[in-house]
Amino acid sequence: MAAHSRKRSRKSGLPPGTLVHLGKTRATAPLITLTEYDESDIRESVVPASELAHKICSARGTIWVNLHGLHDITILEQMGALFNLHPLVLEDILNTNQRPKLEDYGNYLYLVLKTFAYKNTVAEETLDSDQVSLVLGKNFVLTFLEGDDAQFDSVRERLHLGKGQIRKLGADFLIYSLIDAIVDSYFVILERIDEKTEALEAELIERPQPFTLHSIYRLKREGVFLRKSLWPLREVINSLQRGDSPLIASNTLLYMRDVYDHTIHIIDSVESLRDLTAGMLDIYMSSVSYRISTVMKVLTVITTIFMPLGLIASLYGMNFRYLPGLDWHWGFFAVLGVMLTISIGMLALFRWKKWL
């Protein structure tokens, strides 16, 4: 949270629309990919920023421009001028701490989504997120990504192979396909969380350790992290599938409803994860309490057995000249026998009472 506050402080006092990149530099150099297609043909190329305007002017059909890497503000300004994007949109693209949202600017829609992936560090496996900004126009789609665009590989493959209706329909169906690819990637994260949950449950049942509690809290934080991004996503997809914007055709709305159903299913899974995590914490605390009570019971039994033995030993340890059996040859062994008999009798009593 402190690091996030330091990032936001870089914009303190600046006027609205000031372009400042807030986020990690995840790409070594910005990369612009231009994809133009229609029902009969598709063309894809990596375009330098200086040549993008010329390429767009000569493009045909539906246009998809993907910018990978947001730290070069000059390139973003050029794209904003080329597609007439509002300065506040450019500002939100660079502020990679946005929550999922949808804004209607009349001639285009601006969407913010989140992608998730597990990153392996030296200490542990952590859940990380990237921001994906999408702009839908009449015949174009713009995507702005912090990290790589591997989640869009399936969409590119369908475009090149011409499978389904993606090449026959317009930009609205393309943005549906991109949103659907992002939402489907959440199921991969949920499967990984399910595997971790099952492993933790087995560990809780067998023998919980102190680090088990740390794993439960980490799983709980991941659930909260997902929930903060998925609940706003529900409203975004719901707004799209209502058909309020003329940029989305009626036949695409049916597919948007399908994405909305997937989103509801994912949210329900995250809510179940929260309940399950709370239950795991209760099981852990109960298990620890049971182990402590078992240890205390054994210690109490041992203490109870030694109390009368300590009493006998303390009586015969007093400095009196005359004690019963003090001069008897078998006195020491007799006292040991009495102490042993008392110990065995008390153990038998505890067994009979089912205290052991």
Topology:
Blueprint: H1 2-9, E1 31-37, E2 42-46, H2 52-57, E3 62-68, H3 73-82, H4 87-94, E4 101-104, E5 109-120, E6 125-136, E7 140-145, H5 153-161, H6 171-206, H7 210-241, H8 250-315, H9 331-352
Parallel strand pairs: 3-7
Antiparallel strand pairs: 1-2, 1-3, 4-5, 5-6, 6-7
Helix pairs in contact: 6-7, 6-8, 7-8, 8-9
Task: Tell me briefly what this model is.
The protein is 55% helix and 15% strand. With 356 residues, the protein is an alpha+beta fold.
Tally the helices.
9
- How helical, in percent, are the residues? 55-70%
CATH class of the largest domain: Alpha Beta
Instruction: Give the radius of gyration.
Output: 34 Å
Distance between the termini: 51 Å
Which percent band covers the strand fraction? Answer: 5-15%
Largest pleated sheet? 7 strands, mixed
CATH architecture of the largest domain: 2-Layer Sandwich
Written description of the protein model:
There is one protein chain. The protein has 356 residues and is α+β, with helices and mostly antiparallel strands. It has 2 domains: 2-287, CorA soluble domain-like (Beta Polymerase, domain 2, 2-Layer Sandwich), CATH 3.30.460.20; 288-352, Magnesium transport protein CorA, transmembrane region (Methane Monooxygenase Hydroxylase, Chain G, domain 1). The protein is 55% helix and 15% strand. It contains 9 helices and 7 strands. The protein has helices at residues 2-9, 52-57, 73-82, 87-94, 153-161, 171-206, 210-241, 250-315, 331-352, and strands at 31-37, 42-46, 62-68, 101-104, 109-120, 125-136, 140-145. Strands 2-1-3-7-6-5-4 form a 7-stranded mixed beta sheet. Strand 1 (31-37) and strand 2 form a beta hairpin. Helix 6 (171-206) runs parallel beside helix 8, helix 7 packs antiparallel against helix 8 (250-315) and helix 8 packs antiparallel against helix 9. The two termini are 51 Å apart. The model is unreliable at 1-6 (pLDDT under 50).
